[in-house]
Amino acid sequence: MSRRGQWALLIALAAAAGLGAGLWHGGYFAATPAAPDLPGQRPPGLVEGDILPEDLALTALDGTPLPLSALRGRPLLINVWASWCAPCVEEMPELAAFASEQGDNGIQVIGLALDSPEAVHAFLQRIPVPYPIAIEPPGPADSSVALGNARGLLPYTVLIDAQGRLHKRKLGPFAPGEIAGWANRGN
Known about the structure:
The protein is of the alpha/beta class and 187 residues long. Helices cover 35% and strands 18% of the residues.
C-alpha cells in the first residue's frame, strides 16, 4: 500500500473511532431500546425478576471460583467492563466510591472484566479499586450475556437482590452521582 493509501486508511479509522465515541458519549447507545422480543420467545440471558441459576459462577482475577449463589443474603451489583472501554474507565471512580461507602452490610460490588489478565492487572496498577474483580474472555456466551447483556455492549451493570433475583439492568456508563440513586431506587 502506498504512503498516501496508508494515511487515507489511518484518517478513515480515526474518523470512525471519533464517530463511535461521539455516539457513545452522546447517549445514543445507552438510550437505544432493546430489540423487541419475538412472540413466544425470550431474549437471551436473564431478565428482571429471574433468579440467578445456582451454577452461575465467575472466576476471580486470582483464578479462584466465585459462585454467585455464595453471595446471597445481600444485594449484589455486578459491573461488566474492559480496560479498553473508555466509558467503563470513566465510571470506575464512581463505582469505587460507591463500593467504599457500602460497608459490611450494604450492596456488594463486583467488577467483571471481559479482558485479558495482563490488561486487567496493568489497569488495576494504575487505577486500583476496593472491590473484587472477576475476569473472563469476551465472547458470545460470556457471563454478561447470561446476565442479560444480549447486545454485548459495555459497560453493563446488573443489580441482584438479596435472594438472588435480577432486580435491574443498566446498559451504558453511570453519570457522576447516579449509582447510589439507581441502586437504591425500588429496593
